[in-house]
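Human: I would love a firmer grasp of how sequence relates to backbone shape in proteins. Take your time, and here it is.
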Amino acid sequence: MSDPELPIEAIGEDELQRPQPADEPISEVDSQDLYEVMRNTIDRLEKDQSARGDLKILSRTLRELRYAFSVFRPYRRRRKLTIFGSARTGEEHPEYQAAAQLGQTMAKHGWMVITGAGGGIMEAGHRGAGREASMGLNIMLPFEQGANPYIEGDRKLVTMKYFFTRKLMFVKECSAVVCLPGGFGTLDEALETLTLMQTGKQTLLPLVLLDHPEGSYWKDAGIFFEKQLLANGMISPEDVRLYKITNSVDEAIQEVLDFYRVYHSMRYVKERLVFRLKTPLSEDRLSFIRDQYGDILKEGTYEQATALPQESGEPDLAALPRLVFHFNRRALGRLRMLIDEINRS
């Protein structure tokens, strides 16, 4: 029986039976061990006599994420751009126009666009991308916000209660993030994305802080970062490479596309970090990387390889060449510099 305070319609349960595309890659990895862990956790909650309020949070969280995963799953292998920005920016504002241009151009490159599904910058991103290339993650608020007309009623729209589940989906499902100016929420989203990358909790991706041609919102933020954080030793000099500040939509788009020019994706296989590449590195480039980026290794060196046995659950990526190394898991700014070096190959 559903919780009376959580109507099934609120999370779109009626779309559960959507057919999956025939070409969707299906992992053959057995996950029964994880199901068992979750069942054991539920048993322990019952034995702990957990408070009903705590259980409602856990129940809602699990249901929201399960449904969001099912909505995003058919599009998992398509590159997606997350756009953050103010819900209050009018369509006459240059930042709205920049977001619309950004969404339109990225859709032409075959990308999808994820936004918070509300008005302002979010609406502009969807307006530019068009309904077919748009995905939305809306939030339930007492004063805001209905979905914008470019995503409202679409099967690719998910409405969530909790900000933390929504923010998880924003960064989990995307391959790049572009932040335009906004309020507290936009600052929170931008800084959380940056923090997750700096601490290794999020796979590295291009993070662009985009102002309109005459704007200084992110430029001023960058000055604060360097004056207060960098100058006082609160971040490493290489950490500023984790983001790019620009006033140009074209430059923002190029930053995103260049990130995936040679580099494709990464994953850890036990203690080794595996970079999947679109093309193998030349011997000269590999030698240069070994010489210039040995400081971020815990041990060993950089080796080119084919797909590792542990990657068998991703057959669609099996043909990509690999760069395998034992990363120290600390120097994330330097790791981003390594990706930039690879893309110059």
